[in-house]
Structure formats: C-alpha cells, structure tokens
C-alpha cells in the first residue's frame, strides 16, 4: 500500500516542511502520493509533481478547500484514507488541526510530531516538551501521523515528474466559514525552515530594540525569533516565539541574544546544529547548550557582529 | 448556553520530569501534579462567558483515576458549576478520551465544548479535533480570541505566520492557546464552596465506550544531552570560529 503525504501550501507555493515530511515518508518504503488540496492551486501541484520520490500528485482544487478548513479536508482525506498504509502531514498548525480529525473519522490513533522512524509502524516522538522521547508502536491498520519537519532531511524539490490526478469529490460540511487572516508580512525566511535564526529575549528590553536583531538577520539571510519572555513582555508577536509552546526550530545556526535559556525555550531550539549565545550574565543557562558563548552587552556586541560579517 | 470544559491532571509545569531507570515511562511517583495549563485557560474562557451572561451552566469533565477529582474541584472553585469524573485507571489515549467525551456530550447536550489545545505531558494536541470529528461539529483550534455573534462563534486562531479568524455554527469545539486569556486564581471562599458542588463519577462502561488500545508505548528515553561548547572572548573571535571552525557563515 502507498503512503499519502498531505502538502502544506498557501495555494501558490508548496511549503518547505512538505519536503521534510516526504523525507520521513521515504524512510518507510513504498510508493508515495502527495495530496494538494486548495483552490486555484495548480501551481502547487506542478511544484509537487517535480519532487523526485513522489509517484502521484492528487489535486483537489475547489473553493471548499481554499482555507484548509478541517471539517471539509478531513472528510476528503478520510474518504480515501483507508487505501493507504500511512497518512502523513507536516506538524505545522495546518497539519495539527487536520490530522487528529482525519484519524478519528478512520477510528485510528494519531501520532503527533514524530521525530524518528524505527520501523513502518514504530516511531519516536517527544513528550513532556522534549524532556523525554517516547517510542510508540501503532496497532492500527492505517498510521496517521504529523511529522516534525526539522527532524528529517528534505527531499530535493526538483528532478521528478509525477502524474497529477484531479479529484472531483468536494466535501462541504457547511458548519465553518473563513472570515479573515492577518499574516505577518516579511521578506525574511520563515522561522520554521530558515537556515539561520537570530532570536531575542527579555534582554532586548523593548520591541524597538528588536530592530538590532533584524539588521543582523538581514545581513545573514536569517529569520528572527524570540523567547517566551520577550513575547510575554509584549516586545514582539507570539508567532515569533521559539520554544515548547511556540515554534520548534533546528537551523544550522541559532544565535540567542539576551536569552537566559529557560527550559521551555531550550525545548524549541536545542536541536540546532550550532548555537551561539550572547548574554551579559555569565551564569545564564543558555551557555550550557551553546557551542560558542560570548559574555557581552548585546547592545555593543550585536552591532559589532553585524559590521564584522 | 451550556458549556462543557475539560480538565486534565498532569505533572506541574515547573517540575522537571525524569525517565524511569527501566525506560518504561517517566517517573510520576511523588511528583507534584496540577491542572494542565491549557485546561486552566479553557476553564477561564468558560467562566468569562458565564460572567458575560452568555453561558448559563459550566460542566467540568476529567478522565482518569479518582485523583483527578482534585483538578475538577479546582475548576469548580474557578467558577464551573458541576463536575463529572470519568473513572479510568490511567488517562487513556486521545481517541478513547474523545469517545468518552462524545458520550458525555450526547448526555449533556452542551452548545460549546472548550478544551486545552494540548496537555503538557503527552503533547498530543488531538483530543479536541477528534471530539469534533466524532460529533461532526465544527472546530476552532489554537484559539486566541472568541466572541459570540448572531448565534455563531467567531474565533481567532494562532496559525503559522499569523492569525486566522473563523466563524463556526453552534454547537462547536474550541481548543485554547496561550494568548486567549490569563487564568485567575481561585479564592479561598470559592475553594470552600467548590467542595459542596456536585461531582458525579461515571464509568466508561456506563458511557458505552470500550477502552481499546490503538498504540503501545515501547520505551521512554531521556533526550540526548547537548554538550556545552566554549566561551569566546570577543566578537571577532566569534566570527572567526563561525567561519573557519563551524563553517556556518
């Protein structure tokens, strides 16, 4: 039986986390299909078809799927879900919203945020905010799971030529309606998939001071993140939060500026390849996980760093 | 409007968990337990709707052994009107919890069920969505704001990259995110009053739900410890290390 991956996209572009999820699917063995459900999302289907390792793209292009409403999408996926051995989606807000609903319709469990494949029915996943790793075996005929993108290598985006099959089934539960969306507009890479992340904490002192980090980030081509303390202090918006209750990131380089390193923050970034910490407190716990620690006043060190690059 | 709100007994969020030496699970013996923080937000949301004159009754439900009555009493002290404990040896997996809750919903007929988006022990983030599927109700997960408008529920959700607003027909399921509210503390008089509020105990058998296992926990390990590195003396040394040693810039 084949594996179905549900693509994350915005009707224009396929999100990078989909490639990591396909990377996890590739470890399971078997033919891989990719579902693109949305509205006027033919461009996404074309991108999906170019991924080597995808043998078929299922395209469900209809108004009812435009905003990824879980009520409608879950019916679509559950409708053919039993024909697959695995249903996988990236563990972003869309996948987390959708997949448990799909699983319940199929009367199977859902495994959240898998970070390792032990065998086709056994997976590793973090529990207690990453303070423990559970190995869990599925006893169900279909494995439904969300995949932590940062834990798997992505498949390449180019080089394949999958067939695109259009699905005509439209499911409209009629109980929920999209009203509006406020998306942060930024030319910087997305926090979840950026190669470099620069994050600020309470040490920044104000929202205005985040401009320092933005200048540094732009020089590095990095995304900007924040600790829960900086978010709670009202410096920046919640969608920048890195940590247990925010985004889990694992970039090649993570620069923590003015962040003390609370457990809840470490849970969100400790799998980064290289961690740099800049903090004036030499006792800050962040230094215990940092590869390179600099004890310095961030208001001097950050501009100096930016100039030195 | 009648609201059902769910509460889970979990390890206190300030306690550092330890894995048992035999790797069978985490060690919860003699560990401080508390109401799951996202459930506190759910209770607060329900209480505020009652204070605003929108909700008429709040029923707090928990699934687990009798110890979870403590968290139901906390919900009652915070403003819930009565409680239901669904008695199980251990808290079952999400799908079974959702089935148990669906049975309670069938009996209680609430117009709104508010749940925490996830519990801080299993970190599943599933029960609300599963309950919505079983009831065929609309769902708004990760709520950061909610308002009742002309018989529909308007919910702002925290999604990747920003906020999304949905309008749901009632009855509906809402799961709470951190920003929805700041939960209050229970006052001593309210804690005393809560002891007199009705708390019923139901069994899965009475609710007609089988405790089927869909997964098996094979092992629980501590995560790999990250080794700390070195301290650098200056920005120029840092840049040099990042370029020549780590090769990340």
From TrEMBL, chain A:
Residues that bind FAD: 202, 227-228, 241-245, 258-265, 279
SUPFAM superfamilies referenced in this protein's UniProt entry, alphabetically: Adenine nucleotide alpha hydrolases-like, DHS-like NAD/FAD-binding domain
The record's free-text note on cofactor binding: Binds 1 FAD per dimer.
Gene Ontology biological-process entries: fatty acid beta-oxidation using acyl-CoA dehydrogenase
Keywords: Electron transport, FAD, Flavoprotein, Transport
Requisite cofactors: FAD
Signal peptide: none
Subunit structure: Heterodimer of an alpha and a beta subunit.
Family of this protein: Belongs to the ETF alpha-subunit/FixB family.
Cited function: The electron transfer flavoprotein serves as a specific electron acceptor for other dehydrogenases. It transfers the electrons to the main respiratory chain via ETF-ubiquinone oxidoreductase (ETF dehydrogenase).
Protein name: Electron transfer flavoprotein subunit alpha
Organism: Azotobacter chroococcum
Automatic annotation (TrEMBL), chain B:
GO-annotated molecular function: electron transfer activity
Record protein name field: Electron transfer flavoprotein subunit beta
Function: The electron transfer flavoprotein serves as a specific electron acceptor for other dehydrogenases. It transfers the electrons to the main respiratory chain via ETF-ubiquinone oxidoreductase (ETF dehydrogenase).
Oligomer status and interactors: Heterodimer of an alpha and a beta subunit.
Organism whose genome encodes this protein: Azotobacter chroococcum
Coiled-coil regions, chain positions: none
InterPro entries: ET-Flavoprotein_bsu_CS, ETF_a/b_N, ETF_b, ETF_beta_N, Rossmann-like_a/b/a_fold
Keywords: Electron transport, Transport
Biological-process GO terms, alphabetical: carboxylic acid catabolic process
Domain Electron transfer flavoprotein alpha/beta-subunit N-terminal: 23-211
Family: Belongs to the ETF beta-subunit/FixA family.
